[in-house]
Structures are given as structure tokens and as C-alpha cells.
Amino acid sequence: MARTVFVLNGPNLNALGIREPGIYGGGTLGDIEKSCHDLGNTLGLKIDFRQSNHEGVLVDWLQEAGEKADGVAINPGAYSHTSIALHDAIRSIDIPVVELHLSNIHAREDFRHTSMVSPVAAGVIIGFGPNSYDLALRALAQILES
Ligand code: DQA
């Protein structure tokens, strides 16, 4: 049976394609969603792809993933740098959570250099553009197989 992976996206990621294309590229979140579904089919993962601009909704989805899913790939957007609530939600669930970022947050402003999510993530993928999502799914597939 296919394993279920939630792919969660935080604030402003719905604006990919319009938002700072020099940093995030010209592709849309819809393009990323399609490629996650395609790769999920190859890897035997059922992808549940979601985006919210609201911190509490992301907390709700992490809790839901803890009950229904086998793993999570999350791009928490700016909440990466601020959210103890996301940190606590990830700590409280017993499935692997891979953090990912499109841009190399360490090559950008100082305030992006810290992530509240990284210490509780199974691993972190940073700076490969839309390919960060593919790498996160491949990493999760390997974790779930082992
Ligand atoms: C981001 C990096 C964050 O610093 C930023 O706030 C985002 C996107 C990324 O994918 O590169 O919204 O998570």
C-alpha cells in the first residue's frame, strides 16, 4: 500500500511565480504540486499537497499528519524563522518531517539563518529551487523504507 506524505507549504508560497522570481524562480506552486504528484507515483508515495498563510492551520495539518500520514515534507516559509508553535507541533508527532527551502537561506539575510524547525526535523534540504521538493520526497521515501 502506498505511504502517505503530506507536503505542507507556509506563507506566501501561493505567490510563487509572481513573488521575487529572481530568488524563487518563475514556476508556480501548482507546477511544484504536479511534480510532487509525478514523483510520488514513481516512489510509491501518496501525496497530500497543501498551502496556508496561517501558522495555526499549519499546526493543525502537522497534528493531522501525525494521525494519518507516514511522513511530512514542509517548506514553512517565513515561519521557519519564528515559529515555536511549528517546532512544538513537529516534536509532538511521531513521523519523520523533512524541512525544505527553495532558496539557500544561509546565503541571504541574517534573520533567515536560524530555523526553529531544523532542530526537530529528520533532515533539511536547502537551496535547490523547486528540486528541493523532489529531494525531500526522495529522502522521505528512503527513511520510510529503512
Ligand atoms: C523560503 C525561505 C524563507 O526565508 C522565506 O521566508 C520563504 C521561502 C524558501 O523556500 O526559500 O517564504 O522558505
Cα-atom radius of gyration? 14 Å
CATH topology: Rossmann fold
Number of domains: 1
CATH architecture: 3-Layer(aba) Sandwich
Please, could you describe this protein's structure?
It is a single chain. Helix content is 38%, strand content 19%. The protein has 146 residues and is an alpha/beta fold. It has a five-stranded parallel sheet with strand order 2-1-3-4-5, with helices on both faces. The longest helix is centred in the N-terminal third of the chain and has 15 residues. The structure holds 1,3,4-trihydroxy-5-OXO-cyclohexanecarboxylic acid.
Helix/strand layout:
Blueprint: E1 3-9, H1 21-24, H2 29-43, E2 45-51, H3 55-68, E3 71-75, H4 84-91, E4 97-101, E5 123-126, H5 131-145
Parallel strand pairs: 1-2, 1-3, 3-4, 4-5
Helix pairs in contact: 2-5, 3-4
The structure holds 1,3,4-trihydroxy-5-OXO-cyclohexanecarboxylic acid.
Distinctive features:
5 helices, Rossmann fold, 146 residues, binds 1,3,4-trihydroxy-5-OXO-cyclohexanecarboxylic acid, 19% strand, 38% helix, globular
Give the structure's gist in a few sentences:
With 146 residues, the protein is an alpha/beta fold. The protein has five helices and five strands, in the order βααβαβαββα.
